[in-house]
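Proteins fold. Shown next:

***
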Amino acid sequence: MNLHDEILQITREYMGIVAESFIARRCHNSLGLENPEKIARSDLDKFARGIAQTGEVYMKAEKVREFTSKILLLKEGELKD
């Protein structure tokens, strides 16, 4: 599974059917990426900060922390099912 797909899998847990559009917006607004599939592991700190900045609009702070923690685990390929 590539990084984008891993991010999508995690994001679906928290954002449901809007996961793909949420990722696209975060990639564009936080990273300046037009194509979310171009995200790199080195982008994940900034990507997670973007989630933290907007996530509380969609979910409780505790869930935002959980979400960003899972994203950050992908930096080193540490997330396990």
